[in-house]
Design goal:
Radius of gyration: 47 Å
Helix content: over 70%
Number of domains: 1
Largest sheet: none
Order of helices and strands: H
Number of strands: 0
Distance between the termini: 153 Å
Structural class: mainly alpha
Shape: rod-shaped
């Protein structure tokens, strides 16, 4: 075989190897880009879900605050009602004490007769 043929064969083999190498590099680069894209999509989804979770948490905190305020208001109304009832009972008792027509407490169970 002539030297020129050997040189052409070597050049063809080197070009073929360079093309194969280039194809592998492009494929690897494409895989990396695909993985970067998938990672970016996952990050965007994570951020979107994080924002949604923060909003839900804020709504829940607000609802809890409203519920605590309403509970405190209900407790205050109940306390005021107890105080009002105690005052009413005291007035009722005082009315019984001063009412000349009121029968003593022991006689309250007996039926009254007018006569």
């Amino acid at each position: 075989m002539s030297t020129a043929a050997i040189i052409i064969i070597v050049i063809v083999v080197l070009v073929a190897l360079a093309l194969v190498y280039s194809a592998y590099r492009r494929r690897d680069t494409q895989r990396l880009e695909d993985r970067r894209q998938v990672a970016s999509e996952h990050r965007e989804e994570a951020e979107s879900r994080r924002i949604a979770a923060d909003k839900q948490e804020a709504v829940a905190d607000e609802q809890a605050a409203v519920a605590r305020r309403q509970a405190a208001e209900a407790e205050e109304r109940a306390r005021q009602a107890r105080e009002t009832r105690i005052a009413a009972d005291a007035h009722q008792e005082r009315a019984r004490e001063v009412d000349p027509d009121e029968t003593p407490a022991a006689d309250q169970d007996a039926p009254r007769t007018q006569g």
